[in-house]
Amino acid sequence: MARTDLDALALNALTLEQKASLLSGRDFWTTKPLEEAAIPSITLCDGPHGVRREAGGSDHLGINESIPATCFPPAVAVGSSWDPEVAARIGAAVGREGRALGVAVVLGPGVNIKRSPLCGRNFEYYSEDPLLSGVLAAAHVAALQAEGPGASVKHFAANNQETERMRVSAEVDERTLREIYFPAFERVVTQARPATVMCSYNRVNGVHASQNRWLLTDVLRREWGFSGVVVSDWGAVQDRVAALAAGLDLEMPGTGGASDRRIVDAVRAGDLDEAAVNASVRRVVALTERHSGVSGAFDSDAHHALARELAAECAVLLKNEDGTLPLSAEARIAVIGEFAARPRFQGGGSSHVHATRVDAALDAIRALAPDVAYAPGFALDGSGDARELREAAAEAAASADVAVVFAGLSEREESEGIDRETIDLPAVQVELIRAVAAAARRTVVVLSNGGVVSLEGWHDDVDAVLEGWLLGQAGGSAVADLLFGAVNPSGRLAESIPVRLKDTPSYLNFPGEAGQVRYGEGVMVGYRYYETVELPVRYPFGHGLSYTTFAIDGLRVVRTGDDRATVTMRVTNTGDRAGKHVVQVYVSTAAGPVRRPVRELRAFRKVSLAPGESRTVTLPLDRRAFAYYDVPLGRWAVAPGDYTIQIGENASSVVAETTISLSGDSVVPVVSLDSTLGEWLSHPLAGPALLRVLSGGKSRRTEEDDENGLRMASSMPMGRFLTFAGIDIPHATLRELVELGGSDGAAA
Questions:
Q1: Do the bridges between strand 229-232 and strand 196-199 make them parallel or antiparallel, or are there none, so unpaired?
Q2: Coil, strand or helix at 208
Q3: Among residues 659, 652, 651, which one has the least CA distance to residue 82?
Q4: pLDDT digits over 714-736, tens only?
Q5: Whole-prediction pTM
Q6: b or e along 272-306 (b: 16 or more beta carbons within 10 Å of the residue's beta carbon)?
Q7: Residues catalogued as catalytic
Q8: What is the arithmetic mean of pLDDT over 690-706?
Q9: How many whole angstroms separate alpha carbon 53 and alpha carbon 34?
Q10: What is the rounded CA–CA span in Å between residue 251 and residue 588?
């Protein structure tokens, strides 16, 4: 039984060496026990979408074999479900399997934002939007931890690329961090209370995340109230003593005692406060409450069926001309592409799961239709004659009623540790799609990829496109269910599909240079950028088709306070099939002193409706739905003004909207002699007083001329302006102006 509450007496009974030993791993996956204090060792393992519990040798990149477990749809797919229930059911199942395999902490989920489609680890992340990512991750964590093991939300923070991930410095302004890269972590921490938070490898504004006190203590613990263990990403610690002082509790993996000695030496030399050691020891000991050894078992058949059910919720029907889908079981079907027989269902690296079984789409399609021909079309290993394979596929397509081409990216093209260089499909696959489309009566393309791929060069030649992402071990059967209409597609894009790579907002700044990556696009990430600058994309964030149709009416927005509101509407299934619709609520405003995206997702809900059924949906918009992060004030602020509540078919297409006015916050800024003249002039109290002092008893025309001149110099600091202009204001009067500019500001 673990000692979960290390009281002062018990803590004082431990030597400094014993305490230090608890703060790093025993080996690659386990912590050190302290038997004399009844503190057990616990096992941590990878597992954002399935448990990777290694049976033999240890590695962090999925090279060695692990114990069989269910590979559920990775986060790239779950993000497109837009359904916290899907995330929760996966989290619960992973928790059950973790418990059955003796795992105390499952490393996941990953909530880093998809800043660029080139990030090689995007398959482990949910979305380009912090609200969507945070809601899904919080559901996953809460359900996983309800089963016993702890979760480790990762990678904190600004870890949005693999290039030089161990040392690159992400140069990000605070508003961008607060509005884009922090909120998913904040939601998980405050709502789901994860057992651990994993720090990232990279530096943030020059300071390694593992020893960044502002991140790990000021923001994570003091602002968000996190009370769990901060664990390092494996090998992320640069300076163990600095990391411990900053708030990093547990270093993984073990260092053979080297880190323990550094901690002991630093305390004895007076370079590290032993109170910091004690605080981390208490948190690590509390984490050992998760220790239970192997407990229970999991039903691999039931979990495989669950993986199939949930995978079908995640695929996105991008295009469906003239009702090409769903397919008829009586149709002559040509299945083309090696991915149909050898499915790509997960990414490479540390999250790689040894699946209990794998469904191939070809087998599942043949189980549903009697007349199915197959041609590989291309070879994943590059063997064979590409032209011969392509011509054989075109011949099979010409003899069928419909050709279904399975295309995508191989695992070697998408893996932890490596960023992609292009979003294009391999040329051999593009040539295959075009050849098949030219020969077939109708052509469907099914994509298997962990990050966005370009649809250019072939999209307009085909009749339907199903974005399957990576769907886990049962994805092949789920795709068949979708193609034949056993399940109605309900996924929506969690990331924009651009027309060109160079259109992406981070294009000129990714992956950086000279050891730095500048987040120059600021808050204009993903759809926020495309919609604000009116740049067309192939398919926008939130896009997804169905085999039925939906309508929204009766939009009503009611203010419920100075800075919040409630949105109500009616959603109707106007088609002849049961289906699910994702209600997407965006907020648009120009209020406030900062540039805002043209619209931002602020609420969503997935609704299941029978044919002809209507349902009233009510969604609250809290203060944060209208707020921006005010850096000078150091807090969230809601500017007084108009806010347009928009219901989007997707981020680009608004189907209903209404505008409300909010009184918001009464914020009067503090001004000093270091403030600009423009800031003085805009101050509600100090501004008019300053103009009166400067104008003296001049005529109205002269006052207007002087005021125009003052506005021309508005960017100059006040003290410098007075000197530059040779304006001599009596000291007492100047002091009164400064007090006038600061007293109300301080009160506010």
A1: parallel
A2: strand
A3: 651
A4: 888 988 888 888 888 888 888 88
A5: 0.94
A6: beeebbbebbbbbbbbbbbbbeeeeebeeeebbeb
A7: 233
A8: 63
A9: 23
A10: 43
